[in-house]
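Format notes (please read before filing issues)

Several people have asked whether sequences and C-alpha cells are stored in separate files. They are not. Every record keeps both together, in the order shown below: the sequence lines, then the C-alpha cell lines. Line labels are part of the format and must not be stripped during preprocessing.
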Amino acid sequence: INEVAHRRALEYYLRLKARGPVHAKVADSIFPPERPIRVRLAKAQRLCSTIGGPEMPSDATALQLARRVHFNTTPPGCLKADAPEKDKKMHTMRRVQRFSYFDYQVWMDGSVVLDVASGAGALAYPKDGLREKVVLGAGSLACRYRVGCAAMEAWLKRLPGAIEVSKTHGTRLVAFADSLLLLMLSAGPAGVEGAMLRGVWDIILRIVRVRVSVNFQFVFSHCGVPRNEAPDKAAEQGNAKPQSYPAWVTDIVAGVGRQARNEMCRPFGEGRMPRTHRSVLLDHVRPLPKHSKLDRLGESLLAQFRTGTSKHFGWLRRVLARQTDQLGVQMVQHAGRFE
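Then the structure lines:
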C-alpha cells in the first residue's frame, strides 16, 4: 500500500475511534484486525494511553472573540535563523521590554526524546506577585510541535483561577514562544486543523471572554535571554514525569510513520541490502565549487544517474540560447521555401 494512503487511512480510523462508541464500531468494521494498519497501530498502542476527544466547531461568537487575540510571528529585528547570537539576544530583549508593563508574561518550551518521553514547561511572571511554574510529561509519542501545544494548554487552563475577579477588566497577557505553534494558531479557530490546535483555541477564547487581552510574540530560542532558558530547563524535568498525557491522532500517525521508516531502513543498516544511493556510491564525496573535478570513476557513476559533471551536480539539460533558436527557425523557414 502507498505510504501516504497508509497514513491517511490510519488517521481516518483514529478520528472515527475518537468520536464515540458508535463511530468506533464503524471504524472496526471498516478496518478489521488483520489489516496492516491495525498491525502497525498495535505496535504503537503501548506508547499512548488514550486518544484526544473529538473536535468541536466554533460558533460565530467565538470568531468575534478571536479578533481580540494578536499574533506577531515576525522574528525580532527581522533577523534570519543564521544571524549572530549577539544580535538575536539584543533584538529579543528589545521585544520583551516593550511588554514589561503587561500584567502577565508567559514563556513556554518543550523537550522531546522521540518515542521515549517528552516534557513541557511553562513559566508565568506576574507584574505583581511570585513566579508560577508548570511542568508535565507530554507523552511518549510526542513531537516538539505537539509539546508546545501541551505547554500552552496546561498553563492557560490555570490562568482563569490565577486572575482575581476584580482584575479581570483590563488584564493584559503576553506569551512568548519560539516554535511553529504561533504560526499555526494565527490561522484562527475556524482555520486551524487538528484537535490539538482547536483545544488551545478553546482555552484562549475562554480567557478572552473574561476581558483579558492576549498577545503572542515570537522570540529566538537559546540566545542567552534568562527568561527563555528557564522554561527549557523545566521542559527537561518533564521528561522524567509520567507520560500520561492523552495522545492526539496526528501524534500517533507520526509515531507509526517513524516505525515504518525504521523498518525500511533497518536492512540497510544491517548490511543486508545493497546501497545504491548516489552519495554512497561516491563514497560520501560532495565536491565543493572550488573542487569540482571528478576522476573517471566518479564520472561513470554520475552517468548512471544521468547527471552532468558540473560543480552543482545538477541534472544535465541542453539549454539553447535565444539567438540559436531563432537561427534554427529561420533555417527551417528557408528550407521550406526551397522545397
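For reference, the curators noted about this record: Confidence is low (pLDDT under 50) at residues 287-292, 299-339. The chain has three domains: 3-51, 60-245, 278-339.
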